[in-house]
Write a structure and sequence with these properties.
This protein has about 120 residues and is mainly α. The protein has 2 domains: about 60 residues; about 40 residues, no CATH class. Helix content is about 65%, strand content about 0%. It starts with a helix and ends with a helix.
């Protein structure tokens, strides 16, 4: 897969994510609470939904940031695009096809994930 095709895919993904973030942004709502303040279960359900939506929005923003990073790298440092930011080795072609914004080769990504998993224990 050549860099021009990867750039096109990244630009399309950026557009898609930008639209999703725009749709997921919270709207100006009345902050006074639910319509029926005496229904605690309804209020709790609304809070859970808002937490879920906030998590989704955070995930979309993070992914958009990763795509922007990949586009900036491709535009500003094209010779370094497609190379692992940890070890400097070429990122596997299949990985870049699946995830053009990948920063790390599979080996470095596995090490990172196992480190994060150990910290959570």
């Amino acid at each position: 897969m050549d860099k021009a095709e990867l750039k096109l895919r990244l630009e399309r993904e950026r557009q898609r994510l930008t639209e999703l973030v725009s749709l997921a942004e919270p709207r100006d709502e009345d902050a006074s609470g639910p319509d029926h303040p005496d229904h605690m279960a309804e209020h709790a359900s609304e809070l859970v939904q808002k937490e879920y939506e906030a998590g989704e929005l955070a995930s979309l923003r993070y992914l958009l940031k990763e795509v922007d990073h990949a586009l900036a790298k491709l535009n500003n440092l094209p010779d370094k695009f497609g190379y692992c930011e940890k070890c400097g080795k070429k990122i596997e072609e299949k990985r870049l096809k699946a995830k053009p914004w990948a920063r790390y080769c599979l080996q470095c990504r596995k090490v990172y994930e196992s480190t994060v998993a150990k910290r959570k224990k």
